[in-house]
Structures are given as C-alpha cells and as structure tokens.
Amino acid sequence: MTRKFNFSAGPAGLPEEVLAQAQQELLDWHGKGLSIMEMSHRSDEFVSVAEQAEQDLRDLMGISSAYKVLFLQGGATSQFSMIPMNLLRGKTNADYINTGIWSKKAIKEAARYCDVSIAGSSEGNGNIAVPTQAELKLNPDAAYLHYTPNETIGGLEYDYIPESGDVPLVADLSSTILSRQLDVDKFGLIYAGAQKNIGPAGLTVVIVREDLLGSVVAGTPTMFDYKVHADADSMCNTPPTFGWYLAGLVFKWLKAQGGVAAMEKANQRKQAKLYAAIDASDFYANPMAVANRSWMNVPFTLADDALDALFLQQAEEAGLLNLQGHRSVGGMRASIYNAVPEAAVDALISFMQQFEKQHA
Ligand code: PMP
Q1: Angstrom distance (rounded) from CA 194 to CA 252
Q2: How far does the chain reach from its first CA to its final CA, in angstroms?
Q3: All domains of the chain in start order, with CATH
Q4: Tens of pLDDT, residues 120-139
Q5: CB of 194 within 8 A of CB of 174?
Q6: 238 appears as a binding residue in the annotation
Q7: What is the pLDDT of residues 54-77, one digit of tens each?
Q8: Helix axes 44-61, 241-256, angle to 10 degrees
Q9: DSSP, res 30
C-alpha cells in the first residue's frame, strides 16, 4: 500500500495514524464484539466516546463552559440557515462581510430570513484583500455579524478578528478551525463542516454561546433549533456516530502532536515555504494580498494555462493528488490542512520546480 500526498480541499486527507486506529478498531471496538458504527448512540460505550471527543475539542480550543458544543449533520451549508433562524432573536437585521463565494452563499441564505447589511466587501478589489476593521460599516443593532475567516475557494484569509462590540460575532471556520490558536471568547458562534480539519464528511461542529439560545424564528423545524440539540447533548435524534468517533480520534491525534499551538507552528512553516516558492518564480503566481494569504488553501496559476492539464497529470504520476483548483476559478489549489505533512509540501515544491525547468 502506498498512501499518496493528498491536497484535496475537502473531504480532505486524514492523519494516517487515525485511519490505522479506525481500521484496527473497525470490526471489534475495544473487545465489545461489534464496530462503533453498529452501536446504539445511547449505549454507555458510544456516550463515552462522544463525551471524550467533546472534552478533547474543548481542551484543544480552550472552549469555556459558557459555550455549548454541538455535533450536527447537514454540513456548514445548513448553518447558513440555522444561524439566522436561531440568532435573530426578534431582530430583523444582520451584518455580513462578503469576501467571496462562501460568504456570498451565507448571505443569500440569510436574506430569506432578515435584512442583510453588507458591512464590508472585498468585491471591489477582486477578493484579494479583506476589508480592514476601519472599513467595516457596523450596525450596533444588528442581531449578529457574520464573516468567513478563510475563503476556501479564493484562498483569502483574515489577518484579524473583526471587533463587533456587543453584537455577537459569527464565524464560518470550516476550512481553518484547529489550524492555529483562536480566542473563542471573542465569538458568539463558530461553525465548521468536519471534512477538512476535523474528520469525515457528515459531521458539522457548532460552538455557540449558551445565552444566545432559546428564541427561534417562528416555524423553525425542530432539527434546526440549536437549543433542542444543546438540551439533548446533540442526541435528539441519531447523530453521525462514525464521524463523531473519528473526530474524537483526530482530536486525540492533535493533542499528541502538541495541540493547536504545535499545529500553528507547522502550518506557519508549510504555508511560508509554499508561498515563497510561488513568489520566487515567474512561472507560478498567487494574487492575494500577502497579509491575507490563506494558510490552508493555496491557489496558484501557471503562466500558461495550456499547461494546466499536463501539470495535473504529472503531479498525479508523482503521487501528488487533488491539486486542481475549484471548478469556478480554475488553476491549481493546494489545500494543506493539519493532516497534510510538511513532507507533502516539500514534495510539491520540488515537483513545481522541476516542472518549471522543463516548461518555462
Ligand atoms: N463554508 C466554507 C468556508 C467551506 O469551505 C465549505 C465547504 N467547502 C462550506 C461552507 C460548505 O460546507 P458543507 O459542504 O459542509 O455544507
């Protein structure tokens, strides 16, 4: 068996140790004679797995008891509607910052429930630099301020946390959660689809300040009410048990690596060397403002896009998978989440340099 280097944006590569442990436990979890997938979510065994995963996530991110941690389904996309349904709390306005494709999707969905004010936008600069704090036009009466700390497709990332005063700050952390240290106390709500830095697709993590719960828009389905999930410890129905279990293994793996602080150091190095290689060449380019370059998703173009197909084919032959950019933007994109080792980035850089020598 040869595992290749996987630069997929999501579902993304998982730590090999985690997959090996899941494989080893697959048929017979801890001598119980059945797999974790085949157990009742209400069994003592599964409840202990679920509680441990939550505790480990709390430890890793420093989440205080003022917050509920929910393990849901429906992807980050369902959160685009659950957020207004739950956080409007009688208000009719919410502030959103637009920095690209994912913020726009969140805005479009929220507009079905409330008046959305665009508090800031990077559209004017072609989504290559995020609006600064001074440029934001914040409404002190807004129900919340929503932003996308990392635009997975554009590769555009905030270098600051917006200051929203008493207005709860809501962040789509799908592609950057656990990649570096973060002060959770600054947020009203954080959400993330699991399939990048947490575990397999099918699980969505929501971290929400408890005092924001309990007042939903009329007609909100039960399954879209955070308080229902919070009161039932995310078990008001059958939760995504396998995803939850695997996320727990990833959290243990993260702790063994030295936690989020160690990830931050590794991710800092990985992105710095990849952008440095791109900048050192006239053959490759990344247009983002340097301060807003994403650590997790590194899009780049070749000087001649007629070479794109050959680049991807030869990369694949060299064991470097999933480097094709998102279908909406083209070019290349290397997603270098926590589970992508530094050796993968080194291999990509030497492949890029060789390819350039042959084709420049
Ligand atoms: N937000 C961001 C920033 C994303 O990267 C993605 C998925 N790529 C989504 C939302 C949508 O997530 P899901 O597919 O889990 O609904």
Answers
A1: 15
A2: 35
A3: 17-256 (3.40.640.10), 259-359 (3.90.1150.10)
A4: 999 999 999 999 999 999 99
A5: no
A6: yes
A7: 999 999 999 999 999 999 999 999
A8: 40
A9: G
* Strand 5-6 versus strand 204-209 pairing type: unpaired
Instruction: Tell me the pTM.
Output: 0.98
Token pair listed for 212: 């924001």
Residues 139-185: pLDDT tens digits?
Answer: 999 999 999 999 999 999 999 999 999 999 999 999 999 999 999 99
Comparing CA positions, the residue from 69, 86, 73 lying closest to residue 237 is 73
Q: Ligand 1: which of 79, 108, 146, 152 to mutate, judged by most atoms within 8 Å of the beta carbon?
A: 152
Which helix (H) or strand (E) segment holds residue 57: the answer is helix 44-61
CA–CA distance, 77 with 201 (Å, rounded to integer)? 12
CA of 7 to the centre of ligand 1 (A): 16
3 state SS of 279: helix
Calpha distance 168→124 (Å, rounded): 26
Instruction: Choose among 41, 338, 345, 339: nearest CA to 179.
Output: 338
Flag whether the ipTM exceeds 0.90. yes
How many CB atoms are located within 10 Å of the residue 130 CB?
Answer: 28
Which has the closest alpha carbon to 330: 294, 297, 311, 305?
A: 305
Q: Which atom of ligand 1 approaches the CA of 78 most closely?
A: 16
Side chain identity at residue 273, one-letter code: K
Whether residue 200 is preceded by a cis peptide bond, meaning omega within 30 degrees of 0, is no
| Alpha-helix runs per DSSP H in 148-240 | 226-231
Token couple for 8: 């997929």
Tell me whether residue 141 is annotated as binding.
no
Q: From the CA of 80, give the closest atom in ligand 1.
A: 10
* CA torsion through residues 103, 81, 49, 194, sign: negative
Closest CA to 142 of 122, 162, 116, 160: 116
